[in-house]
Design a protein that fits this description.
The complex is a heterotrimer of chains A (264), B (94) and C (303).
Chain A (H helix, E strand, L loop, with lengths): L1 E7 L4 E8 L5 E9 L6 H15 L7 E7 L11 E2 L2 H12 L5 E5 L3 E7 L5 E8 L6 H10 L4 H9 L12 H13 L4 H23 L5 E4 L6 H11 L13 H14 L1
Helix pairs in contact in A: 2-8, 3-5, 3-6, 4-6, 4-7, 6-7
Chain B lengths: L1 E8 L2 E8 H4 L7 H5 L5 E5 L5 E5 L7 H4 L13 H5 L5 E3 L2
Antiparallel strand pairs in B: 1-2, 2-5, 3-4
Chain C lengths: L19 E4 L11 E7 L3 E8 L2 E9 L4 H16 L8 E5 L11 E2 L2 H13 L5 E5 L4 E6 L5 E7 L7 H11 L3 H7 L15 H13 L4 H23 L5 E5 L5 H11 L13 H17 L8
Parallel strand pairs in C: 2-5, 5-6, 7-10
Antiparallel strand pairs in C: 1-4, 2-3, 3-4, 7-8, 8-9
The chains are: A alpha/beta (264), B alpha+beta (94), C alpha/beta (303).
Chain lengths: 264, 94, 303
């Protein structure tokens, strides 16, 4: 049985198609991501969905059920059900790490901690939404100020062992602070580390509100930033953070799994 | 005077209010100073020459995070600063 | 008060203040018993106010330079050049504002909250109860009694939303000079809903989205001014809004935000002939005057 999950994020649309055996074991058939650009919500979701289907030679009729999640999930008119990012994230993580208890989800526009019951169900969450300082946007804005790509930015931070505190707690004010650090000849890698330490410490404070239990899994776009992962481990005072192979697709995957379960 | 320390940003409103009229003649010896696990309170002489407590400058822009340990998302216990202040001069907005 | 005091109709700019020096030529400071000075070193502008026997005598307002001590000295120097008054003639100096502890010749530092309330009480009279100060990098809401004593206050310097800086971001995005934003925000066919994101970073993307959806620039600006007004009003509500509403700081010069705040509150802001940007320094000089009455004059601190 084929089911689909669609994650309408603030920046990108992610689609995951899975095939679930009668026994209940799912396998991922296709992951697909688009930047919607000028397309509005439903049209972007349709485009991403149809592209994913045609890439594996499927038609809409072959799909038993579609679920949607993400900040823009209400715009996905063809989805049968809409689920929260917390439920979808917890379910998706259970595919990779059945022993996960704490999920750290850091995307472009939000940073949150999710506590799961060990069966892929979210039982509690705490987060920082609607303020760029607690999310990936903060790092993105600062990497622009440093004229580095996000990847270079993350790598640069790994080369620093300095701890410079950032005074500004707001992305807009922090941009000026970064500019003045550049002017005072502070090495870029030290600035990058200061920025990622700041995001990690804010995210960590939110995760602590739900409690930190092993295994800890990081999902969302910031998984691709090794500097952030390192800063997060230090902030949370843990040795290991599990990183799924397809971090940005975890919520969409969880959606598809929830769609399949509902059919069984 | 009600002194509100903190901020409002996109994620919410985070103010700790101190009613300085209740704070001036503290009957519990400034128990908030040691009650807060992060030591966020300090005494000062205000602009009208009264000795009262305030939130240290370094914490004022970070309350959502600095107070997070005392505010678990479920089964929240009473806040230590509020408990310590028996004259009820301290209030949290969130 | 003489009409010369009104500087707000000269070239409306946002927080980018006009540099401005004024003295009451009907008075002679040499015959005053107590001369006190208030210095307000803000993040964007610095003011020096001279009070003679408890009455406003002179002020100088200029952009803050690279460091607080020099900005304070330069602000005072402007007054010296205008009136001949030197530090040796002054009985007490009080510093306020963000750089208040770095005023090299001040005897005492008092917070800008207390000084703004005291200054507004002088400028607007004893009916002033609610004071809003929106500067380049912060926003303050103050409630005070009939003597200008603060009864409730809050400050927000953590987040750029609701500050001059937040306006600057939209001005850059729209490529429209900041002074035009207010007037343009009224040139719309229909008043739009406020931009829903508080966070300036997200409001920026939302504004771009509105442009794509066919909004005119003026309508996007209107939506942003409304969002700013709503945010400021929510801060004011925390301290309790009462009639006698006085606005200081950069926001006073943006009708797009001020008129929307007035509409939301159902209260009109009070008019003043004195440029409201000197409220903090004026309050500091008045505090100094009270101290001189109580404790007598202090010798000048010459660095």
């Amino acid at each position: 049985m084929i089911t689909a999950g669609i994650d309408m994020g603030s920046r990108t649309v992610k689609v995951v198609l899975i095939d679930t055996e009668a026994s209940g074991a799912p396998s991922v058939k296709k992951t697909h991501l688009i930047f919607p650009g000028d397309l509005d919500g439903d049209a972007a979701a349709e485009k991403a969905y149809d592209e994913a289907l045609s890439a594996v030679g499927l038609k809409r009729d072959d799909v038993s059920s579609v679920y949607a999640t993400g900040a823009g999930r209400v715009m996905v008119n063809f989805a049968k059900e809409k689920v929260t990012e917390m439920s979808a994230g917890a379910k998706g993580v259970s595919y990779f790490y059945p022993n996960a208890r704490t999920i750290v989800d850091v995307g472009a526009e939000e940073g949150r901690g999710i506590k799961t019951d060990g069966t892929g169900k979210a039982v509690d969450f705490a987060g920082n939404e609607k303020c760029a300082a607690g999310a990936g946007s903060f790092a993105e804005a600062m990497s622009r100020a440093l004229q580095l790509t996000l990847k270079e930015f993350g790598e640069a931070s790994l080369r620093s062992d300095k701890t410079i505190p950032m005074n500004a707690q707001c992305t807009v004010f922090a941009e000026s602070e970064v500019v003045s650090l550049i002017h005072s000849s502070t090495p870029k890698e030290d600035i990058a580390k200061a920025v990622l330490d700041a995001v990690a410490s804010r995210v960590c404070a939110m995760v602590r509100r739900v409690g930190i239990d092993k295994d800890v899994v990081l999902i969302g776009g910031m998984v691709h930033n090794p500097g952030f992962v390192s800063s997060l481990k230090t902030a949370m005072d843990i040795d290991e953070v599990k990183l799924p192979d397809i971090p940005e697709f975890v919520a969409a995957l969880g959606c598809a799994m929830l769609a399949a379960e509902a059919k069984h | 005077m009600i002194a509100n320390y903190g901020y409002k940003d996109g994620s919410g409103e985070y103010y700790i209010s101190i009613d300085t009229d209740k704070c001036i003649d503290c009957p519990v010896g400034r128990a908030c100073l040691t009650g807060c696990p992060k030591g966020m309170f300090e005494t000062m002489t205000d602009d009208y020459d009264d000795e009262v407590v305030q939130i240290k400058q370094s914490f004022r822009r970070n309350l959502a995070y600095d107070c997070a340990d005392c505010k678990p998302s479920s089964n929240r216990p009473p806040l230590p600063c509020v408990v310590a202040c028996t004259p009820a001069a301290i209030k949290h907005s969130w | 008060m003489s009409e010369q005091l009104n500087t707000s109709d000269k070239k409306p700019e946002f927080w980018r203040w006009q540099e401005n020096c004024w003295a009451d030529e009907s008075k002679d400071w040499r015959s005053a018993k107590a001369i006190t000075v208030g210095i307000d070193v803000g993040s964007v502008s610095s003011q020096c106010v001279v009070v003679a026997d408890g009455e406003l005598f002179a002020y100088n307002s200029m952009r803050t330079g690279n460091n607080s001590p020099d900005s304070a000295k330069n602000a005072f120097k402007g007054v010296t050049e205008k009136t001949g008054l030197t530090l040796n003639d002054v009985h007490m100096v009080v510093g306020t504002g963000y750089g208040r502890v770095n005023v090299p010749f001040s005897h005492k530092a008092i917070t800008e909250i207390a000084c703004h309330a005291r200054g507004a009480n002088y400028m607007g009279g004893n009916k002033v109860r609610t004071i809003l100060d929106m500067g380049g990098q912060d926003c303050k809401a103050i409630h005070c009694d009939d003597k200008g004593k603060v009864t409730n206050f809050l400050m927000n310097d953590k987040c750029a939303a609701g500050t001059g800086r937040g306006m600057e971001v939209i001005s850059d995005l729209m490529q429209i000079p900041i002074a035009e934003l207010g007037p343009r925000s009224f040139e719309v066919d229909q008043e739009p809903e406020a931009v829903s994101s508080v966070c300036v970073v997200f409001a920026k993307s939302e504004a771009l989205g509105l442009l794509k959806a066919g909004y005119t620039k003026n309508k996007v600006i209107a939506a942003y001014c409304q969002a700013m007004a709503e945010r400021v009003v929510s801060l004011l509500e925390r301290i309790g809004v009462e009639e006698g509403f006085f606005i200081t700081g950069g926001i006073a010069k943006n009708p797009g935000v001020v008129k929307r705040i007035e509409k939301l509150l159902g209260i009109k802001a009070m008019d003043t002939k004195i440029d409201s940007q000197i409220a903090g320094a004026l309050g500091a000089a008045l505090f100094a005057n009270t101290l001189v009455q109580k404790q007598g004059p202090l010798a000048p601190i010459v660095a």
